[in-house]
Amino acid sequence: MLKKILIANRGEIAVRIIRACKLMNIKTVAIFTVVDSQSLHVKLADEAYCIGSGSVNETYLNIDKIIKIAKKAKCDAIHPGYGFLSENSEFARKVIKSKIVFIGPSPEVIDLLGDKVKARSIASKVGIPVVPGSKGYVETLEEAKTVAEKIGYPIIIKAAFGGGGKGMEIVNSPETLEISLLGAQSVAENFFGNKSVFIEKYIESPRHIEIQFIGDSYGNVIHLGDRECSIQRSHQKLIEEAPSFLTEQERNELGEKVCKMAKELGYVNAGTAEFLYKDGQIYFNEVNPRIQVEHPVTEMVTGIDLVVEQIRVAGGLKLSYVQDEIKINGSAIEFRINAEDPKTFLPKSGKIEQLIAPSIYHVRFDTFVFSSYNVSNEYDSLLGKLIVWGKTRNDAIERARLAFKELTISGITTNIDFHKTILETKEFQERIVSTDFIEKASIKEKIEENEEIKVAALYAFYEKIGAIKRVKTETISEKQRRILNLWKQRSKLEQTRNI
Ligand code: ADP
């Protein structure tokens, strides 16, 4: 069994992993930057090492530095959490080469799934429907035209090695195909170091569902049911639930296919298969080879500690459960509490004057901050996750109401009120949701602002990456110019986001 684990991450997930280790009597080693020195993960770990104050590349993404600390501290494993190095196969390879256990799937599996085109073909092979689209990468305008004509507009051009919602271009008509292809390729090259893109049919107003699975090194793979994560902003999840709206039969059928795919891959450790759902059709989207932000909702409905299971299987133990023992009980909802302006989604920094976490039966608040904590805007804006459970979905909503009455974070702008507004919408309560829920939601001026942000973002982005040599700024309105400036500020920050 593993004895000492370095957590190559920060924030609430670092705290979450440390707590799982403590439960298992495993020693923990934290790494932190100067701005993170107050963080709870530093206080809770048995040992903590400062990795400087530079950029993320010099700190949380500095592979050699992290491995050096792990060796020095005599760690026998590294948990990457989510974001940062969690899907970096080079990191996994180097960790393994240093005779340290990487808590995640093998580097070969990470590589395979990191290529969305390859992932699509594996899913097809086990009978999971994929979104209609190109068979492989699309390089030229001619190829793009042929695919688009075959599947019909609107289409979406996506970076094959993309992530974090970046490098996706929706194309509504042939006129904008060329510029969108160029744009997507440039973003792909700039952000992911590979300009390969592919095309899918753009599914309008889909719902996002996913299946949690985990495998051990004895060939056992189980699934732990489904989640719905349709409430998103800027293609990033904001509210997640378990189970989704699928019937028990649909859930089991999809879960079985996902397990088949994982077995085919020789998948060890936790993973999530993501799908889009529209008009009764389920389409494979991608597999995330790591623990996800929203894993607690699955824990609440199954009673299984996913991080403990991750550590067990990485240490060579068998899964503690077989498929028949997995039962979905009740309903859980997670709200991501971010330090951000709820209208522009720009991260906010500042000192938390007071934090009061709800302490109610069946409520969990995962965080790394506390009263008097200084929140910097160097990293992701996630402050914590409010997770509630109820016997039924309505009970869970009721408990969320109670929890939000208690949850207080003062001194800094957060999206707590935004969540409260969503909670009281008829659409949320009746579960009439889709990935464009927030754009559609009742806050009118936000919608207008969102549109302008999109336009401004497109200009700013193309300008930045040189896809358009010179942006004709005279075509942008005053308001757009103002938002453009905000956006520029935001995209600078986005480079340091970890999810
Ligand atoms: P990333 O890996 O960058 O997060 P994903 O492929 O997971 O990208 O897509 C993120 C989100 O983008 C999805 O949850 C969905 O909202 C939207 N999306 C992706 N592909 C499509 C599609 N074919 N049609 C409609 N929306 C899509």
TrEMBL record:
It comes from the Archaea. Keywords: ATP-binding, Ligase, Nucleotide-binding. The keyword ATP-binding applies. GO terms for molecular function: acetyl-CoA carboxylase activity; ATP binding; metal ion binding. Pfam families: Biotin_carb_C (PF02785), Biotin_carb_N (PF00289), CPSase_L_D2 (PF02786). Residues 1-443 form the Biotin carboxylation domain. Residues 120-315 form the ATP-grasp domain. Its EC number is 6.4.1.2. Its cofactor is Co(2+). This is Acetyl-CoA carboxylase biotin carboxylase subunit. It comes from Candidatus Heimdallarchaeum aukensis.
